[in-house]
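A note from the maintainers: we've had questions about how concatenated examples are separated. There is no special marker in the raw files; a new sequence line simply starts the next protein. For clarity in this README we add a label.
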Amino acid sequence: ECNLMQVVQFGGTHSLFLGNVMYMHVRDDMVRDAARCHIDTQKLHLVGRMQANFYTRTRDAIELARVQPD
């Protein structure tokens, strides 16, 4: 569940909707750390909508070390 924060218009027919997530419903076995609200996204096998009828999977995640500022 989310609240709409902003709608950004791109041209006449394209819009980006930005929202603030208020509640999530997640099975207990998908939670990595409840105190920190960390979800095990690898277990979820997420699917994201790209455009029109195109979707993407998030199974090919890679981990990169964060760059530490000097």
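[label: protein 2]
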Amino acid sequence: AQPAAAAPAAAATLTVRQIYDTLTAAGYRNITEIELEHGRYDVKADNAQGQRVKLRVDAQSGAVLRSRIKD
């Protein structure tokens, strides 16, 4: 395994596959939608507690910026 490289000054947008893998590693399941919009991804998934959530994910870092439980 290689150490994590420092992000370049102009960070590249992560691919849908990278976002999927990042969220899966974070415990999200049943990911049904990953859509790039305005520099961030909108994602629909189940969280670790099994609740259906809508996520807003940073397109450069993969960090979850917001998580809302869907009704």
